[in-house]
Amino acid sequence: MLESTHQPTPLTPESVRERDREFAAATLPLMPNVKRYALALTRNESDADDIVQETYLRAHRYWRSFDSANDCRRWLVTICRNAFNTVHQREGRAVAVDDDELESLAAARAHNAARVAGVDDMYSRLDLGPAIQAAIEQLDTSFRDVVVLSDVEGFSYEEIAEMLGIPLGTVRSRLFRARRQLQESLMVYAIDAGFARANGVPIRIAAPVGKHDG
Amino acid sequence: MDSRRSECEAIVRRLWPYVDDKLPDSDRERVTRHLEECADCLSHFDFARAFLDAVHAASTPAKEDDALRVRVIAALNHQGLSI
Predict the structure, then answer these.
(1) Domains by residue range for chain A, with CATH
(2) Interface check B76 vs A, CB under 8 A
(3) pLDDT in tens, A172-181
(4) Is the CB of B72 less than 8 angstroms away from the CB of A132?
């Protein structure tokens, strides 16, 4: 029988304190980031606070398994997402997606449609912040996960694949599909809000915005 | 012209990976060269970038939240954190 070379260090009160100090120093400064991510998941301040607390409790319990060579923010965000999934009993529903190249073509078509509708300069003319947040909130969870981690939190495709436990190709197709859905929502928003330029072809996707001043 | 159109389509098929800087070098150069001479494709790429910039700008900044910090540390202490 081989004897394990990896004997766990015996826990003394001092080593526990030392470990807790390391935990606090590494994780507490990241709380604003964890909170922002939790808010993106819950869209609700008080639910987000609950998720942040649960994230830190779990992180503390698992701290011994965290390899300090890894990115602590990524680790916390992964725990946060798992905590959210447990609390909200979310199912990671798999959705069929088109291939990446077709999604890229769709982005060009979205631009053409925006041109035709006279809203192709909407990003420079309008403050779309609230509309973008609402549109992200309405995405299917599997798409929202990827777009929030990539385009809001700034993780790479590779990091996201690891965090979500899905293949790289799936990250790409979900991300591009999510972007397409966001682009479509924003165009509808800009048109509905009456921001189409006069020279745009007046296509109506939803009911006309009332203009009763004539 | 047909070959022109099919080159445009091939370029646009790489839009998101290009914007995300995920293309292999040779592909990236091909797209860059095309965009230098094709205003129509360039406008699609600019629109896509403007969209991503807007999404990024829409994210709320990560804010300090003292009340939450106090609450989380109290919960951690309750779980046995010794700081």
Answers:
(1) 13-87 (1.10.1740.10), 100-192 (1.10.10.10)
(2) yes
(3) 999 999 999 9
(4) no
Residues A49 and A70: their CA atoms lie apart, in Å, by 25
pLDDT 10s digits, A80-103: 999 998 877 665 555 555 578 888
Instruction: Name which of A175, A114, A190 is nearest B46 in CA terms.
Output: A114
Closest Cα to residue A81, out of A41, A44, A113?
A41
> What would the two tokens of residue A186 be?
């924003």
- Say which residue the tokens 């009993």 belong to: A89
Which CATH number applies to B2-79: 1.10.10, 2.160.20, 2.60.40, 3.10.100? 1.10.10
On whether the CB atoms of residues A189 and A136 are closer than 8 A, the answer is: no
Partner A, chain B 11-30, Cβ-Cβ below 8 Å: 12-17, 20, 22
Quick one: tokens of A5?
């070379």
Helix (H) or strand (E) holding A67: none
d(CA A104, CA A111): 11
